[in-house]
Amino acid sequence: MKPGVVRNWLVAIVGVVILFYVGSTSFYTVQEQERAAILTFGKYTHETTSGLHFKWPYPIQEVRVVQAELTQKITIGYRQNGNTVTPVDDEAMMITGDENIVSADAVVTFKISNIRNYLHNISDPEQFLRNAASASIRSVIGSQKLDYAITDGKTAIQDMARERLIELQSRYETGIQIIDLKFQDIEPPGGEVEEAFRAVTNAREEKNTKVNNARKYENERIPNARGEAQAMLEQAEAEKKSRILNAEGDVAKFNAIYSEYAKNPSVTESRLILETLEKILPDAKIFITNSGSNTVNYLPLNELLGNRSSGATATQQQAQTPVQTPQAPQATESQQEAQGGNGQ
Length: 344
Fold this sequence. Notes:
single chain; 344 residues; alpha+beta; Tetrahydropterin Synthase, Chain A; 3 domains; 4-stranded antiparallel beta sheet; 3-stranded antiparallel beta sheet; 13 strands
């Protein structure tokens, strides 16, 4: 072949290679969950979102694609591959504030919020995030007691560890946004220690159950007792008012009687005596006699009350009729009869 033809073929081949290289390195595709950072001569210039884009060929411009729109997670204290879980004791084992050992497993959820910081400020983002999460958890658990960490303090420790992890990402400007940090479990190491702490936990739960039952009984009994006490107070108040009213009535009655007694003491005295005899001797026969002489005058009240319908005039005549006795002893017997009837 002529030298000119060979040269032309070489130029054509070089041109095709250059065109292929330029075409393959100038166009790139970004997926929907990704974002791309464009580096011009190694310096960050701008970002692109999903779609087909053009750039200057390498080494003028370089593209770095990261999953910035995807929520990601890492595990602390274990690794999970499908259904297989492998413990990582170096990450899980920690020392509490009272110098006990505890195993803590956690999951950190995050997103990439700043691609420039994510690519340039940390060399291995995943390892940095794992170390930062482990350090945050250790710093919090290291200031707490074991009993608190494995029982009531799990949520509080989780919140404090998340806040410290967010603070570390902000301090080092990693470009990582922490969404959440959740503990899978906080428990003592396996073996006898675990059994002992499980027994403590069961005892604490039983204690809480009994306390709740006692409070329930208290809440039931106290209102009932208060109701009974209130009923007794109201009953006593009613009894008090009743007695006061009865006493006031007796006083009024006594004052009325006393006013009449003051007007005529003898008449009132006789009436009170008769009323009292009627109360204490309701079935007695009453005779009123005058034994001042040998002739006995008496008033048969029972017969008069029984024959009230005969008229007031007949009653007065009968009351004024003298009874003659042949001898004085008969008058004495009449008086004894009157006395025997409890009407003297």
